[in-house]
Design a protein that fits this description.
The protein is an alpha+beta fold and 724 residues long. It is built from 8 helices and 38 strands. The strands form 5 sheets. The protein has a 26-stranded mixed sheet. A 4-stranded antiparallel sheet has the order 5-4-7-8. Strands 6-1-9 form a 3-stranded mixed sheet. The longest helix has 64 residues, at 227-290. The radius of gyration is 34 Å and the shape is elongated.
């Protein structure tokens, strides 16, 4: 996954800030503050990633990547590249997983994917220098890693190297990507572009002339660093590994989530929607129509509502249009009988009525539908007033529905009780429903679901629920358990635009081997100029997948909500610029790789002079930490803030643990440039950050670099796979 920075955005989102700022701006849904427990010794670890090749491989017409499925993936020692450790196969999406014995921790590994396409052998490779003890997530193979790997291994063999620097390898890959950004054709066929023996160097002269100089310029950086430079490069590698882990996981989880949603949609369509639609066509829609539960279309009234007791026949004079004609009387004034083809529906009320009404006035309403010649079709329902107040108004109603059909594996059953608070006119001010649904499609239990209205306007005032439990009976069907929900509204229409507060004690939702847990959710809203705006959000969230567990606490406050949406406006009046606070504290515990924790507190203070945004950030990644503060002074012109050129000046200070090395970065819009240093605890410089032409490397132009005191450098883009 990569970020693309273009237009005026580049002027304030400088590569210097990108070293750290993009980490938390892209990932503030991540970790939290706290220590990391040491991992127990493991006998094996895991590497995973994706394999992509240029579109149209083996001879591409575009370098745009596409997944390479069913490819053989091998892990080998990088020096020499002929000792096989293990192997696997990519899935349909190009993903692979390798299990590596722990004895290879700290060694440089070569990952090789091969597949025969159109009778030509395609090879994709990548290097993992110094394999971490926790495994490695996001070891992705593509055209750029392949070309870089071939020339890096050739150089290493020429120089008798037996170990590589992760910083140097990542920078070579980034520089190769930059060199080939205008190339539109590439072959990854062994024996043509690539050599038979890995590490013999590229066979294509044009490619070789583009890639080999990038390796040579990183000659010193490819060697494992020592001393203070090693510590500083370790800081940068921590950011690189953190960013790679988060971005790759986010991208992979997005793909898996989308695939799971598509599967569930198809399952719901096949196993629930289609059978229910067929059930409706067989007779349930007929019952719904004659009881008046279907929205009336046009001037026709296909229901018995408002009609006297008697026998009726339903006809359909035109598609979609139903009418009832009276064909006779019934034995009493409590019975309505309606025929439609082979179906007959009988409705009886406990109280005599001059005309039918689906209300408590009827007392007990019984509905029974049968099909001539098919006793398997039995649709029955009861609507009964079980309690009344002193004025005769209904205060409790029982509902019981059973749908039996030969096309169903089991009947659909609903039993529920509604307790009501009536108004003087007999309508309901509040309704509280408890009940359960049993069927082959789903199971649902509702406890104390309350609908409350304002006394005068009768608009919704509050919706609450003690507990809602449900499961869809599809393959790996979603399961939900919700407790103590409360939604309040101000007195206005439409209700959704008058939402005032949403609270929730807990929600557990699971589907497709993924579980979402929300606890102690409190969201407050305010209507401003016709727009609904959040003003407070507090919640604990936990998201569990087979590969990761993400937990965190969110506390956000917006103190000056306006009708203006700051995410959509290009120019924001300073008095409407969001003022408030956002805090996140959480962690990601992966199945593969190091545990990551993040604490992020963003405070927007546009009323100060100068107006500013201040962020306190802490990143724990394994046994390392980066902690510090970012301060951005807003660029205000004629009372407006331009969203694309947000900061006039900005500073970032981060301290690394356990080394106590400090990174200091600054940015100025006037100079359209960023610069900074990495210092030892005693203040001595170990590296400088800035544009290449200001760091003594004019051949690299305006590219942002981290240049160390030993003369080596790495590109800022390589830290998070940025693209200009």
């Amino acid at each position: 996954m990569s970020f693309r920075v273009n237009g005026d955005t580049r002027r304030w989102l400088s590569p210097a800030a990108a070293v750290c700022l993009l980490v938390f701006l892209a990932n503030c849904g991540g970790g939290g503050g706290g220590g990391v427990s040491p991992l127990p010794p493991a006998t094996e670890l895991t590497i995973n990633g994706t394999v992509t090749v240029p579109f149209g491989t083996p001879r591409s017409r575009s370098l745009t990547g596409e997944a390479l499925p069913n490819a053989t993936v091998r892990a080998l020692l990088a020096f020499p590249p002929n000792t096989l450790i293990t192997q696997s196969t990519t899935d349909a999406d190009g993903r692979y997983t390798l299990t590596i014995p722990s004895e290879y921790v700290g060694r440089d590994l070569l990952i090789v994917a091969e597949k025969t396409v159109n009778n030509q052998r395609v090879r994709v490779t990548a290097l993992i220098p110094s394999l971490p003890a926790q495994g490695y997530a996001g070891a992705n193979l593509d055209a750029y890693t392949t070309l870089a790997t071939e020339e890096i291994l050739r150089y290493a063999r020429e120089q008798n190297l037996n170990a590589l620097s992760p910083n140097g390898v990542a920078t070579v890959v980034d520089r190769v990507r930059d060199a080939l950004r205008n190339r539109f054709s590439l072959s990854l066929v062994v024996g043509q572009t690539l050599p038979e023996n890995i590490g013999d160097g590229l066979q294509d002269a044009e490619l070789r002339n583009q890639v080999r100089p990038r390796v040579q310029e990183q000659a010193q950086n490819l060697r494992p660093p020592t001393g203070d430079v090693a510590v500083a490069k370790g800081m940068m590698q921590m950011l690189r590994d953190y960013g790679t882990a988060w971005l790759d996981r986010g991208n992979e989880e997005t793909l898996r989530f989308e695939a799971a949603v598509r599967r569930q949609q198809q399952l719901i369509e096949n196993e629930i929607a289609t059978p229910l639609e067929a059930l409706g066509e067989r007779g349930v829609n007929f019952v719904v129509r004659i009881l008046g539960l279907e929205e009336r279309r046009g001037f026709l009234n296909p229901s018995i509502e408002g009609r006297p007791p008697g026998r009726y026949r339903e006809t359909q004079p035109y598609p979609g249009g139903y009418v009832l004609e009276r064909i006779g009387d019934t034995a009493d004034n409590r019975t309505w009988i309606v025929e439609s083809g082979q179906l007959t529906c009988t409705v009886t009320t406990a109280n005599p009525l001059d005309e039918f009404t689906l209300s408590p006035d009827a007392g007990r309403i019984s509905v029974s539908t049968r099909k001539q010649g098919d006793m398997r079709v039995q649709y029955d329902g009861v609507f009964e007033v079980t309690q009344r107040d002193s004025n005769g108004n209904a205060t409790q109603i029982r509902v019981q529905i059973t749908l039996t059909d030969g096309q169903l594996r089991e009947p659909i059953r609903f039993n529920g009780t509604a307790n009501t608070t009536p108004r003087n006119d007999g309508s309901f001010r509040t309704v509280s429903l408890s009940g359960n649904l049993q069927s082959q499609f789903a199971e649902l239990t509702v406890t104390n679901l309350v609908y409350d209205t304002y006394p005068v306007s009768e608009r919704v005032k509050q919706i609450s629920a003690g507990r809602i439990q449900g499961v869809l009976k599809t393959e790996r069907g979603p399961v939900i358990d919700l407790q103590n929900l409360n939604i309040t509204f101000t007195d206005g229409n439409p209700p959704i635009e008058n939402l005032q507060q949403f609270t929730l004690q807990s929600l557990n939702f699971s589907s497709e081997n993924r579980t979402l847990v929300l606890r102690d959710v409190n969201a407050q809203f305010q209507r401003v100029g016709g727009a609904l705006r959040p003003v407070r959000l507090q919640a604990y969230a936990e998201y569990r997948t087979p590969n990761d567990t993400l937990v965190g606490q969110v506390d956000a406050r917006w103190e000056n909500p306006t009708a203006l949406d700051p995410l959509e406006a290009n120019f924001i009046p300073i008095n409407q610029f969001p003022r408030g606070n956002f805090e996140f504290n959480g962690n990601l515990t992966p199945r593969i790789g190091r545990r990551a924790l993040v604490y992020c507190n963003i405070v927007s203070e546009p009323t100060l002079s100068p107006a500013r945004v201040r962020t306190t950030l802490r990143i724990d990644f394994g046994d390392e930490r980066m902690q510090g503060e970012f301060v951005g002074n807003l660029r205000v012109q004629s009372g407006l803030v331009e969203r694309e050129r947000l900061f006039q000046t900005a500073t970032l200070q981060m301290t690394h643990a356990p080394s106590n090395f400090r990174m200091e970065l600054s940015y100025s819009l006037d100079n359209d440039a960023a610069s900074g240093v990495i210092r030892k605890p005693d203040g001595a410089e170990v590296a400088r950050v800035g544009k290449a032409n200001t760091l003594g490397l004019p051949d690299l132009g305006n590219a942002y670099l981290v240049r160390y005191t030993d003369g080596t450098f790495e590109t800022v883009n390589s830290l998070l796979s940025l693209e200009d």
